[in-house]
Specification:
By secondary structure, this protein is an alpha+beta fold. 40% of the residues lie in helices and 26% in strands.
Length: 137
Amino acid sequence: MAAGRVRSTSGVTLVEVLIASALLGAALVPAFDMVTRGLVLARDVQTRSKAAFLAEREMEDALAKAARNFSLNLAKSSQPLGDGYLVTVTQTASSHRKIVHVEVGHDADASGALSAGEVLVALSTLVGDTATPGGLN
């Protein structure tokens, strides 16, 4: 009876398991890399979007101040906005108009100063003295 037994071939050998594991691992490494890169890009988009929002808010604030009092100095230098974001506002003025420039960035090196490499958003606009006829001419 022992000679008449048929051996079952439905099992999996250790070599087959090792090969399957290696192939699965080789396929998962690029997938994990893509997920990691996606998370990094999503964080970058979030940081830049928040910087754009803050820059627009600062520009609107500067325009409102200029509309109330054109001679007011609007300049700010690396003023904190919270969450590590800083703003710098500069102005170039003539008698009846000024160019307002707003830069917002994330203080990556925690120096408390906004360096050129940290600027994420820069906005500029021309503001005229509404009390003077032809303020933008």
